[in-house]
Write a structure and sequence with these properties.
Structural class: alpha/beta
Number of strands: 18
Strand content: 15-25%
Distance between the termini: 47 Å
Helix content: 40-55%
Radius of gyration: 21 Å
Number of helices: 15
Length: about 450
């Protein structure tokens, strides 16, 4: 049993939102009780004490869309690659990387991503993987890394026709086999979705194969209208817009998650809402790729569940939230929008998305919820309460404020040190895989 105390407690539970000097009691994999520090110490005298050092005790962050396959790209420059549009970014950078990503490279990417997530207080990830060099077994390799390091994960593989029929078939099979394993295992730490890349890389024939292979096991996780490529391709080759194509092919539904959704029209938003389909916004990545600003404010007004992800541009959910605020205000030309919407997306909607897959409640501190708890270092110099805590987080915190991360009741990162994880050994092995990947991409030895 753990007792986390000596700090302010932000629960995200409307029935008990804030304790100025509180404690969270963990019993096994779930939260047992939340209350005043002295009361909890008296009630659970034998619990192991985890000191918050006056910081903020809160639920771990959920990242609703990321890409483990980009984990070894930090600092990488691919010779001759100077993209001037979104397709060139995909083909010259990301598809180029994943075409050289072996199973060992995939595992190294998972290690790098997960360690960074833990440091930044992220306790659940929805990953969308691609490694067209070696597809079979890739999701299972990521699963093994997630289990080893303790990350709660929902995984899928990116189906795409971009590398031919054999690779398309392998990517469908990888999704199906992993979804079948996840359904049979029923492990609340590892779940599955059925992934798809952008619509301009997937024909209706392949969509039909995906639906057949999935056989209702899980929802789909797919990139939609991230660039205008999707819109042009759907209109020119199928006579309809992208979301209508998804509707016609049986992809939409209450467990399906659409990534990006930048170039939508009003009709498409209505289709998403009426089918109960969920969306996820990735503001930094969209700005970096120069693909536009998603109409998130309009989508939320329509009642669509829009969560927040990073697209692996960062692993810091607070950073993603900050950028969401400024791009939406810049796009709207209004300095008084997107604050409440950002809070809703990061904390409420991401929790709602997670609830479609994970059994225990996530993103909230209350009895019976998953024991996913973080401690953020924060020494306030202005008044702090539940009424303005969001403002303190937005303007005063970053992911690197995280000093302690607990996932599923397991202390993984305590006082800025990993617990029972040999970071140096993992980094040394990951470095060797990075050198191999970079060497193949640039035809030289690193």
């Amino acid at each position: 049993m753990l007792l986390i105390g000596n700090g302010k407690v932000l629960t995200r539970d409307s029935g008990n939102p804030y304790l100025s000097s509180g404690a969270v009691v963990i019993d096994g994999e779930v939260i047992k009780e939340i209350g005043g520090l002295e009361e909890m110490k008296t009630k659970y005298p034998d619990a192991e004490f985890v000191d918050a050092h006056g910081g903020v005790i809160m639920p771990g962050f959920i990242n609703a869309h990321t890409h483990i396959y980009s984990g070894l790209a930090r600092g990488l420059a691919i010779e001759g690659n100077n993209p001037t549009n979104f397709f060139e970014v995909l083909d010259g950078t990301w598809w180029n990387i994943d075409r050289h990503l072996t199973l060992d490279g995939t595992k190294a990417s998972a290690y790098a991503t997960i360690l960074d997530c833990i440091r930044d207080g992220v306790t659940t990830i929805f990953d969308h993987h691609a490694s067209f060099c070696e597809i079979p077994g890739s999701l299972f390799v990521i699963r093994d890394a997630a289990k080893e390091l303790g990350m709660r994960s929902c995984l899928c593989y990116e189906v795409s026709e971009r590398d031919g029929e054999e690779k398309t078939a392998q990517s469908i099979a990888e999704n199906a086999e992993f979804a079948q394993w996840a359904a049979k295992e029923n492990d609340d730490m590892i779940k599955a979705m059925f992934g798809g890349h952008a619509l301009f890389t997937i024909s209706d024939k392949t969509f039909q194969k995906m639906v057949e292979a999935n056989n209702g096991l899980t929802g789909f996780h797919i990139h939609v209208s991230e660039g205008m490529n999707d819109v042009w391709d759907s209109l020119q080759n199928y006579g309809c817009r992208p979301v209508e194509r998804l509707l016609n092919n049986g992809i939409l539904g209450p467990k399906t998650l659409l990534g990006h959704c930048i170039h939508l029209n009003d009709m498409e938003m209505d289709m998403i809402r009426e089918t109960g389909t969920m969306c996820v916004n990735n503001p930094e990545s969209n700005m970096g790729n120069a693909v536009g600003c998603a109409p998130v404010l309009q989508m939320l007004k329509k009642g669509i569940t829009v969560g927040m992800g990073t697209d692996a541009y960062t692993h810091d959910m607070l950073e993603s939230w900050k950028v969401f605020l400024i791009i939406q205000r810049h796009n709207a030309g209004l300095p008084n929008v997107a604050f409440g919407e950002g809070i809703q997306m990061l904390f409420d909607n991401n929790r709602e998305i997670a609830a479609k897959y994970f059994e225990k409640p996530l993103g909230i501190l209350k009895p019976g919820a998953a024991a996913d708890v973080i401690i953020m270092d924060y020494k306030e110099f202005t008044p702090f309460s539940d009424e303005n805590a969001a403002g303190h987080m937005l303007f005063g915190m970053m992911g690197k404020n995280c000093r302690t991360t607990i996932i599923n009741g397991r202390v993984l990162y305590k006082d800025r040190e990993f617990v029972d994880i040999d970071e140096d050994a993992i980094n040394a092995w990951t470095m060797e895989q990075s050198k191999k990947l970079w060497g193949e991409l640039n035809h030289r030895v690193y």
